[in-house]
Write a structure and sequence with these properties.
The complex is a heterodimer of chains A (187) and B (154). Chain A has 9 helices and no strands. Chain A has 187 residues and is an all-alpha fold. The N terminus of chain B is likely disordered. Classes of the chains: A mainly alpha (187), B mainly alpha (154).
Chain lengths: 187, 154
Amino acid sequence: MASDKELSDFLKSVEKRAFKRALYAVRDEDAALDIVQDTMIRLAEKYVDRPAAELPLLFQRILSNATMDWFRRRKVRQAVVRNFSDFEGPDGDDFDILETLQALGGSLASESAADSVSRAQILLAIEAEVAQLPGRQREAFLLRYWEELDVAETAEAMGCSEGSVKTHCSRAVHALAKALQTKGITL
Amino acid sequence: MNNLTISPPTAAPFSRQPAALDALQARFALRVAARLTERSQGLEADVGERLRFAREKALEQARASRAASASRPVGATAAGALLLGRTGSGWWMKLASVLPALALVAGLLLIQQSQTDEQVSAAAEIDAALLADDLPPIAYSDAGFAEFLKTPRE
């Protein structure tokens, strides 16, 4: 059973990322804060008897469900379709993910965007690109690389197969790399 | 202010193998995630305050849940479990649920055996009576004798 301190420390460590995840999905700051609060309370109410090690995955699942509940309550059909559609096809251009990733990884370092654009603006641009990803891709990407869940845990949190997680992550990386390259942003 | 530029990845040329691409994707994704973390640290004060409030409410809820589960009467729980038949190990529970069915099958077999014995016994009695009679059994198939039996005796 997680102690008060363990629960508090866990919530403190995850709350900002959770807020951002919810914000990317619902695009409304107040709603995102409500979702995070609901998530925290649901976790504390129903899973307080679970060991501390289980809290991260439980929290992510509850957060995903709370976000879905928000969409259901609002009945914003368009938002749901926009955030959960996975049917975007290839663009058909000659974009090369490998070359782009290598370039973004540092080959353009000599012409760093930080020279001309402020760091805050770059971070904002990166965040905007992440927010623009399709919902499932963004969720998979954030759970996998931001929350640092493994593929199996991400699949469990998202309620899909591990293969789907890999596909979503790959597409998300592909889209981000392309978008950042277009903006001349290096990492 | 720190520079966003990160030292280039290994200079060795990447072959177009899935493993190399996966590694490159993962490294890129982790860099993006690091930027997101950096960005999330700069939340506005009121957002931070609301998150702190939410966290405290959750902790209060956790304490209430713990207190509720601790004060739950153990006897009532055990009695409820007993009524629902949820005590004991699973193997014994399965055995106990199978026993009535076994008893029913055994009872039906006994009844069938008893009825068969009765039928055999009745048939044996009829056979014995026929054989012990002075009149041979074949006489009953004789049409004249049958007519004789139907004729009222004076």
